[in-house]
Design a protein that fits this description.
192 residues, mainly alpha, 61% helix, elongated
């Protein structure tokens, strides 16, 4: 396929439009779009509905596991004492248990995209502790904000390829410019 408009231009224009999504009173984590947008291309060179569906299933679950850690830490974080070492111990135990549950969830067919869950997991923590979302400091608001923004990434990935208005190359024809996508899609492993 030969792009009529270079992918670099299309992707950059789309990236610029994210300023209007996150740069408002809701203080949404615009960068979360880029996390899942990149995740789409880690799954292959051509964004597909199947891969988008896999990310849309995995990322909110990863964010939900992050939410559980934060809520449990808020409730039980000082159960061993007020000192930093005691709080860190509780947090470490919470992460151990909840992360283990996340990894086992990755064994299911629906949520088998473990890297996608970790994209959501990390996006949630960055949103929550970065003060993003429509109610900064509120873990539930952080979760809702990051889920919506992560969900937009696959849409932007699709648009970044679709809006190049690519056309098939003539058989045997050579192009002057190198193509940025290999002829055969090389997907990444679905599990870590």
């Amino acid at each position: 396929m030969r792009e009529r408009i270079p992918h670099e231009i299309v992707a950059s224009v789309l990236a610029g439009t994210t300023a209007f999504i996150g740069g408002n009173a809701l203080h949404l984590p615009t960068w979360a779009i880029f996390i899942s947008w990149a995740g789409m291309f880690l799954l292959g060179t051509k964004p597909t509905l199947r891969n988008a569906t896999r990310l849309w299933a995995a990322m909110p679950i990863g964010s939900a596991f992050g939410l559980v850690i934060v809520l449990l830490d808020q409730r039980f974080g000082t159960v061993l004492g007020e000192g930093q070492a005691a709080q860190n111990t509780v947090l470490a135990l919470l992460i151990l248990v909840v992360n283990c549950a996340l990894m086992y969830t990755g064994r299911t067919r629906l949520f088998g995209l473990v890297p996608g869950m970790f994209l959501g997991f990390a996006s949630f923590f960055a949103t929550c502790f970065g003060g993003f979302g429509f109610d900064p400091g509120n873990a539930w608001a952080a979760w809702a904000s990051v889920v919506v923004m992560n969900a937009l990434g696959p849409v932007f990935a699709y648009l970044s390829r679709r809006l190049t208005f690519a056309r098939p190359t003539q058989p045997g024809a050579t192009t002057d410019t190198p193509t940025t996508t290999p002829a055969v899609e090389q997907p990444v492993a679905a599990r870590v």
